[in-house]
Write a structure and sequence with these properties.
This protein is α/β, with parallel strands linked by helices. The chain is built from 17 helices and 12 strands. Bound molecules: pyridoxal-5'-phosphate (PLP).
Amino acid sequence: MARRTVVASKRLNLKLADAYRMLDNLEKFTCLKRDIAEINIDPLQRGGILTPAAREALIEWGDGYSVCDFCNGAIDQIKNPPIEEFVHEALPEFLGIDEVRVTHGAREGKYAAMHALCEKGDWVVMDGNAHYTTILAAERAGLNIEFVPSSGEPGYAISAEGYSDAIMRAYERKGNVSMAVLTYPDGSYGNLTDAKAVAEACHDNGIPLLLNGAYAVGRMPVNARDIGADIIVGSGHKSMAACGPVGLLGATEELARSIFRLSSTKKNKEVELLGCTVRGAPLLTMMASFPTVVERVKHWPEEVEKARLFSKRMEAMGIEQQGDKPHNHDLMFFKAENLYEISKTAKKGRFFLYRDLKERGICGIKPGLTRQFKLSTYQLPQEDLDKVIKAFEEIIESYKRPAKV
Ligand SMILES: *Cc1c(COP(=O)(O)O)cnc(C)c1O
């Protein structure tokens, strides 16, 4: 029996028979409205907004296994729709890597690579800013982790020497280090570490580098070959204007032989991908958005400029940006002691910021956060960013106590 059902019925103190009555009243599931404001600054969502073409593809290909009509057993070889060309020609060129496959997301790519290339009990070295999914992928693959510590507050920088040191520490424990991962950029501070230098440090020790480009691929130019990354993962729903779950996993020819090895019994099926990964709409939305994505990547310097200007204006209000400065990415982390102070006395306490921004047509900062939060300026017109800045200014102003006479 589903554990969830048991827990739910316990919590609600319902007998199982009562729980089944829920199935008599299901209308609420048929009309699902989304409550979002006009301007969404949630970093998770800025790069995953569908293009008009992707929105059409979503409807056109929404039926279950819609891509399987003309499949001969390997999803990446489907010619109609042109998945083969997308996966084997367009994506390798876009990422600068020999072989690419579509996955359900960045995390599934990381797990597949770790599972294929590392033995249980091996060590994987990763930056201290690594995403939780990298840690879970390693855990699921039975690996030990040695972290490369960041420099801490306020820059949280990661260095190439840190990688060499972490590799040495793992060796000192008699560990077999079989992979290194760099989060590029990390999902907390939006820091772009010198990936080339990290790749060199790893290669000096004979260790392949997996570049986690969940927040890079589809937003900014990333070329695995130029960087020297042996494996690269991307996230379609985060950064490639796809509905998801969908992502990318690329590898050098040599590593691809292990990662994308074929089943010994099931013809055409790649083991780490469990045969076929994304079997419908999410893949088609990623394809439909791809021309736009290729184009938008070229405009990355403008996105960086917008982010830097935004950061400057937030700092002028006493809200401090953490991480790389000047910043090189649209994802930014802010510390706001002034907003935290307001939350101590504001009506609704720490939820005031969420409410006050929402009233001004802005969402994306998690309800309850005031002291520190992340946001993204990606693909927002300057006019909208001006509105966001103005909203913060107004909010801070509105809580100022009248000056004593
Ligand atoms: C969002 C994110 C992920 C997870 O991506 P999925 O495609 O959802 O698996 C992994 N790493 C980083 C750095 C992220 O920001």
